[in-house]
Fold this sequence. Notes:
Belongs to the peptidase M3 family. This protein is mainly alpha-helical.
Amino acid sequence: MSHKLPQPLPLVPRLDQIVLIAEEGISKIRCVRQRILQTITPDTATFSNVIRPRAELWNVIQAEQGMLWVLGYASPDDEVHNEIDKVRELMRRVNSEWMSEAPFFQLLKPATEKNELLDTEDQLWLKEDLLNHTRCGHGILSQEQIGHYLKLQNEIDMMRSKYAKNLRTEDSGIWFNVEDLDGVPSIHLESWKANEEFLGKKFVPFANGGTKLVLTYANNSKTRKRMYLADEKKVPENVQLFQDVIIQRDTQARKLGYTSHTAFRVERRAAKSVDWVQTFLYKLQEDLALHGTEELDLLKSRRRKHLQNQGITLENDDKFQPWDLKFYQRLAEEELDIDRYKISDTLIWHENVQVWSVWEKSKESNFVGYLYFDLIWRENKYQGCQNVTIENGMTQDTMDI
Length: 401
């Protein structure tokens, strides 16, 4: 069915527009906040005059702002990432400024206590807005303590950004003799860099699926072991960052009265409590352990058969090393005639980003939105699974902002 698109795609900004777009958004938000602070008092504060103006503004500017974060994850350009880093630092400073403002919290809290007749979405926005402020210490910490809390929060965010950048720019790997890579499809072998000084060697990167390909296809167990262990040790500077973030997050959560960072996070999740999550995981473990054991026994059996065909007998058949997992999973799936491409029918392999318009499957066939697929690895792209909301669905009147 042919559809007429009701709105254009969000624009992808040029390099020189990135910081300007962020600054323009900040300026608009600042103007609305200042107007609220200058004209509203705790006695007159309501959802309509404290929350709604900011919500409506965000509806207007969110697509531009959301596209900036997409570029931060997906752009192949170093210069773009440098500009996005400037935006992140700018937003950290501005958010600290805004979230430290006691006068705004003094309007927000009475607005939540007016018991206005609000629809579900407005109630949720009101609840989340208040939670944003209390999770920065308002109503719990002194103003000086709030400033210190937000300063440490910024430091955590900077460590997280550095951790992600280290992973994104990581370009190491291992040189292997070609014979050690026996079993890896030739199409991949040909794509890997050769050594001009030492013939017969190939450089296998950890990124771009290199590790997964070796673990899945290399017939030599020593090759798989070497690749697995080296991949696990990549980006060693992230170890200390990871530890520091964990410690600082726990400290921050306890300042606000939470028992742990887990309790802090669960508050915004569908799970009811930390105890509920733990009980759920224990129950999941009980339900899945038997199936896991059966699957492991299947893989051990497949390994035993594979090695016997090569005239190899294991001294300890009970041990199953992690670097052997993908290799024997593949052999077992081939034996069972499992087609992963049929299972993963939403996986799209294409050199370029694809954009799909999404419509309701109903008589009205209403437009839902746009869905971007960017699934192929490239340099400077975030390494791992990621989704970014560019713009939330909404209906709104024309606004003069």
